[in-house]
Write a structure and sequence with these properties.
By secondary structure, this protein is an alpha+beta fold. About 30% of the residues lie in helices and about 20% in strands.
């Protein structure tokens, strides 16, 4: 199902002479686009899940949309055009993908080889070992 959003007036990237905007209103608008109720909880749009070696190795989910328009932001077009990018993922699926990215991407680090098995067994995460499926 394709949802068409009325995005007239949605603040995109900043350009010379831009009109000031209300970041709270933009956050509310972005939330309506980037999230939706799902059978397993509130689903969030992500463009991908990756691991990178910075900071000793991290796994991250690139969420769609943001209520700020920082001129130095490294984010791609999904920040300014949230209706055009990403797919919705329920919380458990997002957690599963993050654990998988972490396991695949930071396995070279001795620290993370020791930590990841412990983290995936924490009871409050409720994803435990099933993140490998």
């Amino acid at each position: 199902m394709v949802i068409r959003w009325n995005v007239e007036g949605y603040q995109r990237f900043l350009a010379p002479g831009f009109k000031p905007f209300d970041p709270i209103r933009l956050a509310e608008y972005t939330e309506r686009i980037a999230t939706r109720p799902g059978p397993e909880g509130l689903e969030r749009k992500y463009t991908g899940f990756y691991s990178v070696p910075v900071y000793g190795g991290i796994a991250t989910g690139y969420a769609v949309g943001c209520c700020l328009r920082c001129v130095y932001c490294w984010s791609n077009w999904s920040r300014d055009f949230p209706e055009e990018f990403g797919e919705y993922h329920p919380p458990k699926e997002a957690a599963r993908r993050l654990f998988k990215a972490a396991e695949e991407g930071v396995s070279y680090s001795e620290h993370w080889r020791r930590v990841l098995p412990k983290v995936s067994k924490l009871p409050h995460l409720r994803v435990r070992a099933d993140y490998r499926n």
